[in-house]
Amino acid sequence: MGDVALGAALGVAATLAWSAFSHKDDVASAIQSGAEPHGAAAEAAPALSARALSVIDGDTFEARVATFPGQEIVTRVRIAGVDAPERAGRCASETEAAAAATAALSQIIEGRRLTLTGVHGDKYFGRVVARVATDAGGDVADALIAEGHGRAYAGGRRGGWC
């Protein structure tokens, strides 16, 4: 199954899981529009357990995500709240910073149980976007930012790294 289909499958699974909650219409609207659930919809969203399979770059990884008891899917996860340098950087310093961010993300998440919250579709639906925490209780975006491997990101136009 391709990345787009897997991302869509996670979105569908999250929608089905969320439908048991009283704010199901708000959540379904958010997922259909590609927007991050907010307010009551975000509060109703369940946390999903995941394990990293591989790190793509400093703010994206591939994971096996438990969507329902006994059911898992594999999808790419873009970490909400952080922007990391791009691997195909515009200058040598961005490319080097991207390699360091990728290594840092690997160190933070590999071999750990992860919790995904606020899961929603990416604008291209080839991956999902989610807040990510480790079993040690740390927020992954906050850790990357604190270590200097990324900067806070809440959407919109991103600044350059060169």
Provide a compact summary of the structure.
The chain is of the alpha+beta class.
Structural class by secondary-structure content: alpha+beta
Relative helix content:
25-40%
Number of strands: 7
Order of helices and strands: HHHEEEEHEEHE
Looking at CATH, which topology would you report?
OB fold (Dihydrolipoamide Acetyltransferase, E2P)
Sum up the overall morphology in one term: globular
Number of helices: 5
Task: Report Rg.
Answer: 15 Å
Low-confidence stretches: 4-8, 14-42
Q: Kindly state the mean pLDDT as a whole number?
A: 79
Strand order of the largest sheet: 1-2-3-6-5
Question: What's the architecture in CATH terms?
Answer: Beta Barrel
Strand content: 25-35%
